[in-house]
C-alpha cells in the first residue's frame, strides 16, 4: 500500500473508516471464504507473465486455457505498470485488486463517496475495480466506524445491511445465495426497525 500514490493522497485527509482489527478480521474472513473471483499475488503475477512474456509457451492443455483466459480477460498497461481487467461489455478497463488490498480499496472508495450506502459503494467499486466481491463490501461496510457513528444511517443503508448480514451469518447460509438473500423482502422489513447503536 505505501507505494500506491493514489491511496497515499486519499489517506492524508480521511478519518479512520476501518479499524486495524476490522482489517485483520477481513483477512481472516477471506481465508475462510475463498473465492476464485479474488486475485492473489501469485495469480496476478501468473496473469502478468502470460501477458508480457512472449517466451513463455504453454506446455499443457491447462496452460493453453490459462493463457487464453489471461489474454481474453486482462490487459497489461506497461506505462502504468498495472494489470487491468477488460469488462465484458467492452471498452472499459478495471484495475485488478489483489486480495490483501481489498479493504484499503473499499476504504478509499467509500470514503471518497462520502459514506454512501451499500448499493452506491458496491456500484462505485464494481465500476472501477476487479477482484472484490459484493460480500466483501458488505462485510466491510457493516464495520465502517464513520457510518456506525452517523445517526442518519441507522434506519437504512449499512446498518440495515449489517443486521441482514448478521442473520445470514447466524443461519450459516452460503454466500452463494447472497444475491438471492438481498432480493428478498427481508431488508425492507429491517429498514423500518429502530436499531440500537453499536
Ligand atoms: Zn461509512
From TrEMBL:
InterPro entries associated with the record: Integrase_H2C2 (IPR041588)
Domain Integrase zinc-binding: start-end pairs: 99-148
Name of the protein in its database record: Integrase zinc-binding domain-containing protein
One family name in Pfam for this protein: Integrase_H2C2
Organism: Massariosphaeria phaeospora
Amino acid at each position: 500500500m505505501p507505494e500506491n500514490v493514489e491511496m497515499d493522497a486519499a489517506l492524508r485527509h480521511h478519518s479512520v473508516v476501518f479499524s486495524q482489527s476490522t482489517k485483520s478480521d477481513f483477512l481472516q474472513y477471506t481465508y475462510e471464504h475463498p473465492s476464485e473471483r479474488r486475485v492473489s499475488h501469485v495469480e496476478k503475477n501468473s496473469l502478468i507473465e502470460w501477458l508480457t512474456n512472449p517466451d513463455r509457451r504453454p506446455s499443457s492443455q491447462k496452460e493453453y486455457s490459462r493463457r487464453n483466459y489471461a489474454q481474453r480477460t486482462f490487459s497489461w498497461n506497461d506505462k502504468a505498470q498495472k494489470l487491468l481487467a477488460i469488462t465484458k461489455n467492452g471498452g472499459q478497463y478495471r484495475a485488478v485488486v489483489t486480495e490483501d488490498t481489498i479493504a484499503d480499496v473499499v476504504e478509499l472508495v467509500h470514503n471518497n463517496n462520502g459514506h454512501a450506502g451499500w448499493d452506491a459503494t458496491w456500484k462505485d467499486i464494481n465500476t472501477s475495480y476487479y477482484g472484490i466481491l459484493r460480500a466483501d463490501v458488505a462485510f466491510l461496510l457493516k464495520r465502517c466506524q464513520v457510518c456506525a457513528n452517523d445517526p442518519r444511517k441507522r434506519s437504512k443503508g449499512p446498518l440495515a445491511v449489517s443486521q441482514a448480514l448478521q442473520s445470514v451469518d447466524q443461519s450459516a447460509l452460503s454466500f452463494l445465495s447472497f444475491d438471492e438473500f438481498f432480493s428478498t423482502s427481508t431488508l425492507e422489513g429491517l429498514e423500518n426497525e429502530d436499531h440500537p447503536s453499536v
